[in-house]
Amino acid sequence: MRKPFYFIFMIALCMVLFSLRAVKYKEFHDAPISGKIDTFYHYRDYVILRVDGADYKIMPVPLYDSPEFETTAKIGDLVLKDNDNDGFMLLRKNNEAFEYTVKMF
User: Fold this and answer.
1) Distance CA 19, CA 17 (A)
2) Which of 37, 43, 47, 48 minimizes the number of CB atoms within 10 Å of its CB?
């Protein structure tokens, strides 16, 4: 009797965690972003990024030999992203540009 209960509980827990991550991903995916980084920090596997007062929980992946986002980004750098897009650009104060994408899981 206990085994089916644990199995159902684990499936329900996985579904909740999956849906929470999907909501955060969609929130970033749908948002047009064009602003300066207010703050960012690393939390578990994610980067919490605040741009113009809006928080985004993302997992950035470098594109085209760009360095890791966490080591490159500085407060005051510009983030540019179109809506309905996973990719974004980081523009440094010294006019360097780096491209990243965001993975869902």
Assistant:
1) 6
2) 43
* pLDDT for res 99: 92
Q: Pinpoint the alpha helices (H) of the chain.
A: 2-30, 69-72
Contact 102, 58 (CB under 8 A): yes
- Does this model's pTM top 0.85? no
pLDDT of residue 10 exceeding 70:
yes
DSSP reduced 3-state for 77: coil
Exposed / middle / buried, residue 45 (Cβ in 10 Å: 0-12, 13-18, 19+)? exposed
Place of tokens 């085209």: 64
Please list, residue by residue across 50-66, b when 16 or more beta carbons sit within 10 angstroms of its beta carbon and e when fewer do. bbeeeebbbbbeeeeeb
Task: Give the tens place of pLDDT for each residue, 57-99.
Answer: 888 888 988 898 888 888 889 999 888 888 899 999 888 899 9
